[in-house]
Amino acid sequence: MKNNDFILFAKKNNGEINGMTCGWVTDGILWNKNVKMVFVRKSRYTYEFLMDSDHFFTAKFDDEKLLNYFGSVTGRDEDKIKKSDLKIVSENGREKVEGALENIYMRKIAVFDSSKAEFLDEEISKKFREDEDAHMIFVGEIL
């Protein structure tokens, strides 16, 4: 698995969906729940969707052109889902992308602001010290 082979999707309460290639993704067990954590800068358009949504989902792809497109173009400027011919369907009230290698649907259970983190590793602190465009960490319970 590569770090950047996921597209993160979030759906606003009004039904609008946006996606972005998400390189910082991890999963595991937290609070006795199977979770996935995604790290999104506050400046990203998808951040607005994540803040307005109770759920989000990831879709895994091995299409480098698609992943690069979703990582380099903002949804503020164009409808990336429509332009890329992705088909998002709802199954049992959960969205997924047809043709994705894997779809994981999550319920948002926590949000952390990384600018408030205390970095103990000096190298990480120098390289990733957060500013006003800090990464927000969204924790989703895998459903």
UniProtKB/TrEMBL annotation:
User: Which InterPro entries does this one have?
Assistant: Flavin_Rdtase-like_dom, Flavoredoxin-like, Split_barrel_FMN-bd
Q: Which one of the record's GO molecular function terms can you name?
A: oxidoreductase activity, acting on the CH-NH group of donors, NAD or NADP as acceptor
Domain (Flavin reductase like) ranges:
13-142
Q: Which SUPFAM superfamilies match?
A: FMN-binding split barrel (SSF50475)
> What positions belong to coiled-coil segments?
none
- Sequence intervals crossing the membrane: none
What protein name applies here?
Flavin reductase like domain-containing protein
* Species this protein is from: Ezakiella coagulans
